[in-house]
């Protein structure tokens, strides 16, 4: 007997400032008897990041458990036109419209969410500001409201970003992959430094990703946790990320918490001095080997949530042997991680 492959529909929606974005709705062979779950990936990737070439992805696990699965290509996605975004714009313009679109099409009163990295930080800003009252259950991976990074990342954000930002508006982890030449001397110099200092594998994108987003070799996963197929697949799943984002992250890392730009009244720079405007159940997740955002990040967000909300509405789980993105891409993630995510969504 063959099992029908999931079918993916593209659902366009328009962000609050008119930017055209889209959702991918994935339907499996089983009817979705549970409500909608929105999955939001990080920066400089696309919605399909949740679907590496593994036998069971988190999308498969959710479909099998009866969920209606939606993946968001927000403004940081490499599948939408390149733009110099910040987290506030995503929180204010993108995620509320994505949730509204899902509710319109499904008739659901509430939406659950599994969010990762900058998909998580921008979503959690929106949640904290009270822009997503319809979201009642969130699983947030790696970082939520309090970015705490290793010393090397702090150095890059404090010293390299100010030097590089005036010369390069974007970093692209595909530079030097076939068909993606470095655009100028500064980019070529960066690639040369990465190639000279990262010898952990032969995959140029993997090495550039480590330099761009983390500390360590590699920075976002351990090679032991990735299959060869997924390690190779990654080459085409990461691309450019604007310096506008790194500037905001540098300010936030210095402050020990996300600092909105002040562009929107509902997202003031001191947003986290105030209680979060949400009743959602929030499960914070990370790996003990996370070298992109240290596990302290999630513990700091837990402490903030606990100060303002009843016990039991939030939790943190640190999985041993996992880092930042192998939580979703790892060859054993179906065994080690997805069960926990389902448990939280079903709670
Ligand atoms: Zn590698």
UniProtKB/TrEMBL annotation:
Keyword Acetylation attached: no
Keywords assigned: FAD, Flavoprotein, Oxidoreductase
GO MF annotations, alphabetized: oxidoreductase activity
Cofactor (UniProt): FAD
Protein family membership: Belongs to the GMC oxidoreductase family.
PANTHER family hit by this protein: CHOLESTEROL OXIDASE (PTHR47470), FAD-DEPENDENT OXIDOREDUCTASE 2 FAD BINDING DOMAIN-CONTAINING PROTEIN (PTHR47470:SF1)
Protein name: Esterase
Naturally occurring in which organism (per UniProt): Mycolicibacterium fallax (Mycobacterium fallax)
Source lineage: Bacteria, Bacillati, Actinomycetota, Actinomycetes, Mycobacteriales
